[in-house]
From TrEMBL:
Keyword presence, Metal-binding: no
Family membership: Belongs to the EMC6 family.
GO BP, sorted A to Z: mitochondrial respirasome assembly
Pfam families found in the cross-reference section: EMC6
Protein name, UniProt field: Uncharacterized protein C20orf24 homolog
Keywords: Endoplasmic reticulum, Membrane, Transmembrane, Transmembrane helix
UniProt lineage: Eukaryota, Viridiplantae, Streptophyta, Embryophyta, Tracheophyta
Length: 129
């Protein structure tokens, strides 16, 4: 079930070219502080940023191999720091318009935690066969 998403300045739906890739202009919109965001659009972007970080960190942690709860906490702090930096410093949005820091920092947190742990465990296990 897809919802129509509207933006005041432009449509953020990905516009694919013949080769199936996004244009550099479309990617540049993700870093433009003048873009108007609605709650669903921003939530989706924060969710997918966190998922990408979870996959990369999980594979990296497992490949190195790092073990222990401190590394899990470090991932949570790292991913939350990246999310905060993205919406507060890059996009410069008013967090109160989107439910405050708690709502924005929670976006995608539980799914990314699961993905991080899965990637970490699989990478660690495959490295020790």
């Amino acid at each position: 079930m897809m919802r129509d998403r509207k933006s005041v300045k432009f449509n953020l739906e990905p516009q694919q070219h013949q080769n199936g890739h996004l244009s550099p202009y479309e990617v540049a919109k993700l870093f433009d502080p003048d873009v108007s965001w609605d709650k669903d659009q921003l939530g989706d972007i924060l969710h997918w940023i966190r998922q990408a970080l979870a996959l990369v960190c999980g594979l990296l942690w497992g490949t190195i191999p790092l073990v222990g709860g401190i590394w899990f906490l470090l991932f949570l702090l790292f991913s939350s720091g990246i999310i905060y930096a993205y919406y507060a410093l890059v996009l410069k949005i008013e967090e109160e318009d989107f439910g405050g820091h708690g709502a924005l920092l929670q976006e995608g947190l539980f799914a990314s935690t699961s993905l991080f742990l899965l990637a970490w465990i699989l990478a660690y296990s495959l490295g020790h066969f």
